[in-house]
Design goal:
Distance between the termini: 5 Å
Radius of gyration: 20 Å
Helix content: over 70%
Strand content: under 5%
Shape: globular
Largest sheet: none
Number of strands: 0
Order of helices and strands: HHHHHHHHHHHH
């Protein structure tokens, strides 16, 4: 089982702090490491960003039929309806950010390296970013590839289901679309749990996924809170910033999601998952 090794002068003050205080204290003391993780996460996932752009061009028009035929809404001479194209591009930005930040479309082995960084920060281990990253990459690259492939397969299926049922324009279709939207958020939690458990336990990947799903049920209320964090930082805030359609809010979005927000949310989900592992996974299996 994971053993905490707080990176502070004495252990006594650390013991007096609760898990929430420790989360922010350790995150703040490793702010540069988290910012570097966020930036490298974006750089290392450039191939996945390209794939996410392709998926967004496919599914955004299906979810919002207004964009199915952009040429019918844009006057090539006057450009009077260019705002429609701008809106489409912003929605693609939003979609790409969601897919990559949520670990739905990402380079799996690299994500295990980032998961090791979050684990060491959470445990208060004083090690360099490169040491942590290499350790996680070496430990979990095989399972990381498998988890990546699973994400590549399930994510488009969920997006297709969401787009199909919402475009039925019926009460039943909308209800089913909401269910699949909830499943999409749940899958974000599952994928983040999986990458954390890959470097935290010795379980086979099938058992890791099983435990990740079980966590959603046995700790339903805390997982609902984690889902709200995901919705706020991966759905609501990016949507507000991008739909404000100003250079300032676009700049804020690029800065936050290139250097700060993604790593902090993933660090939170990793810490949350490790708490669940320590509570529910037997010592002999971790």
């Amino acid at each position: 089982m994971v053993q905490n090794n707080p990176d502070y002068d004495t252990e006594e003050p650390v013991k007096e702090k609760g898990p929430v205080a420790l989360f922010f204290l350790r995150g703040w003391s490793n702010l540069v490491r988290l910012m570097g993780t966020n930036a490298l996460l974006v750089i290392f996932n450039i191939p996945c960003i390209v794939l996410s752009v392709f998926l967004s061009f496919v599914f955004v028009p299906l979810i919002a039929p207004l964009f199915i035929d952009l040429e019918s809404y844009i006057d090539p001479v006057t450009g009077s309806d260019a705002a429609v194209l701008e809106l489409f591009i912003l929605l693609v930005f939003f979609s790409v950010n969601l897919l990559v930040s949520g670990s739905l479309i990402c380079i799996g082995p690299f994500q295990t390296g980032f998961a090791q960084v979050y684990k060491d920060i959470r445990n208060g281990n004083s090690v360099s970013f490169l040491t942590s990253f290499r350790s996680g990459l070496k430990t979990g690259w095989k399972k990381g590839i498998a988890a990546m492939i699973i994400g590549f397969v399930i994510t488009p299926v969920l997006l297709l289901a969401v787009s199909f049922y919402f475009t039925l324009n019926t009460g039943v279709g909308t209800a089913i679309g909401v269910v699949f939207s909830i499943l999409l958020v749940a899958f974000i939690l599952v994928q983040n749990f999986v990458y954390t458990m890959i470097i935290t336990t010795d379980l086979k990947l099938a058992k890791i996924y099983k435990n990740a799903v079980i966590f959603l049920f046995v700790r339903a209320l805390p997982c609902l809170g984690a889902a709200l964090i995901v919705i706020i930082f991966y759905f609501i805030i990016p949507f507000i910033l991008l739909m404000s359609a100003s250079y300032m809010t676009l700049g804020i979005f690029i800065f936050l999601y290139s250097f700060i927000t993604v790593s902090w949310v993933q660090y939170f989900l990793s810490s949350f998952c490790m708490d669940l592992v320590e509570r529910y996974v037997a010592d002999g299996e971790a």
